[in-house]
Design the sequence.
């Protein structure tokens, strides 16, 4: 299992569970997360979704070994990816999504926060969008959602620099709503989740729908452009060199 799923007090908790790979997303985890999000949306007993990671990371992003395998094997690259399946499920999620960032959030481990309604971060957590260091384009409509969330210049730094941002800076930017001591992270996130979950589910859905509906055309347009740019750069000289260096170091 790559994803733990549990229910308590109308809160469905999803725990990314590939700690040996710092919860990096492979195809199996993308699909499992998408399926879990859709199941939560369809379950009349679920009011709120809480997403966090197992071990010391939130998510180390896309599984780069799998990315390199897809570049080297044209039959794999032609199959498409469940990355898009998960992004569609996030975009369509009708219920509040709370993310509890317990450790490093790299790539999709940062850009997924653009779909969250509330983000809690551990004081020891850090975020990074490593696209320029990997020689690729942004993903997950982050080129649209991050400027909406944190403003043009904060988003520009995140997307252009490939530098780490600590929890205090993430809160200043507006990515993190609250920063907690590591031991307080999940209790605080759950406490707030249960406050929301005590409300009328149809009302929660109506509020979220009216908040996110205006953004959906922008998400769709950004996703189309990002995907085209990503495929153009994937396997190019800068990307190939970055992936070779990464896999040569034997990291997960």
Sequence:
């Amino acid at each position: 299992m790559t994803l733990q799923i549990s229910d308590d007090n109308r809160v469905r908790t999803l725990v990314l569970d590939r700690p040996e790979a710092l919860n990096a997303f492979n195809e199996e985890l993308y699909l499992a997360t998408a399926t879990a999000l859709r199941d939560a949306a369809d379950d009349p007993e679920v009011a709120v979704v809480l997403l966090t990671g197992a071990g010391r990371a939130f998510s180390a992003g896309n599984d780069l070994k799998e990315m390199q395998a897809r570049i080297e094997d044209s039959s794999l690259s032609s199959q498409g990816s469940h990355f898009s399946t998960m992004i569609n499920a996030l975009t369509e999620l009708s219920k509040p999504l709370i993310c509890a960032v317990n450790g490093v959030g790299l790539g999709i481990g940062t850009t997924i926060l653009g779909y969250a309604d509330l983000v809690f971060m551990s004081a020891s957590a850090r975020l990074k969008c490593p696209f320029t260091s990997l020689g690729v384009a942004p993903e997950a409509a982050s080129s649209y959602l991050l400027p909406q969330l944190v403003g043009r210049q904060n988003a520009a730094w995140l997307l252009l620099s490939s530098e780490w941002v600590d929890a205090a800076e993430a809160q200043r930017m507006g990515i993190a709503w609250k920063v907690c001591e590591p031991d307080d992270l999940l209790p605080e996130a759950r406490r707030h989740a249960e406050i929301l979950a005590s409300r009328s589910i149809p009302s929660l859905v109506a509020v979220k729908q009216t908040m996110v509906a205006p953004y959906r055309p922008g998400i769709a347009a950004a996703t189309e452009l990002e995907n085209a740019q990503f495929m153009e750069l994937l396997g190019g000289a800068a990307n190939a060199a970055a992936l070779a260096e990464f896999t040569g170091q034997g990291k997960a």
